[in-house]
Amino acid sequence: xxxxxxxxxxxxxxxxxxxxxxxxxxxxxxxxxxxxxxxxxxxxxxxxxxxxxxxxxxxxxxxxxxxxxxxxxxxxxxxxxxxxxxxxxxxxxxxxxxxxxxxxxxxxxxxxxxxxxxxxxxxxxxxxxxxxxxxxxxxxxxxxxxxxxxxxxxxxxxxxxxxxxxxxxxxxxxxxxxxxxxxxxxxxxxxxxxxxxxxxxxxxxxxxxxxxxxxxxxxxxxxxxxxxxxxxxxxxxxxxxxxxxxxxxxxxxxxxxxxxxxxxxxxxxxxxxxxxxxxxxxxxxxxxxxxxxxxxxxxxxxxxxxxxxxxxxxxxxxxxxxxxxxxxxxxxxxxxxxxxx
Length: 341
Hints:
alpha+beta; 3 domains; five-stranded antiparallel β-sheet; 11 helices; 15 strands; NT_sf
């Protein structure tokens, strides 16, 4: 996802032919470690070379990424992990393994296909007061001093495109190059993203991606017409039920560190006085399932067992991270003291 992370370790650009030769070997390596489905996003057919190889891994257990990281390191590969992405050097090729919930594998494969096209579709979602990610189309709720909760409108990529004014067949037919996506974006008669409303941080990120920058400049220069005034998409939404609340309270009682401090009928959140533990936020998806946000974990929840295991996993991960940081600081302090002696 960028192709420069492991450059200092010898990573270089590869031709499409080289990539195709490596794919069976790399997929075989991953599958020898983890019994999971592996997919490659579709690429522009005219793209002749690549800075990296992106592969999407549909995990079944939250610990799957940790298992892969550990095995790759034990096999002697150079490994770097950042959030849901594990990058490693295979010969001179940077391979980015993008871990997603196996339920979101179809959506993620479509979202990451055709370069930055899916990310740009997300700019259209923003104009409707929504967000698009590799897991679905959703709304956000900022809960002051607690966090940002999510509720998903759909987990189906074609449906998400339709809701945003695009023809799924146009997208799925594919593109030879990024310049070919211009006709796809022009086909949307409902929305022209208001790029001037983007904050400085978002504009900086866009400038780091050549294709996103090209789209940004086209919008600013009027290629797609006048920007559409941002609005809020109004959709029928299910409310949090008493059953949902009772389940959440039951889970919190087992965890023993959090209590509910916010509820508005659609979102509920629990906070803690424990210094290093993250808050827990729940949203009601439009299909009736729940969506959990806790720390760096974002996950669809379909059962009580899934809710409690997900929360416990993230709590343990966070505490392990805090302990590692504490030990690292202690080691640096010890080294500094030894230097001063």
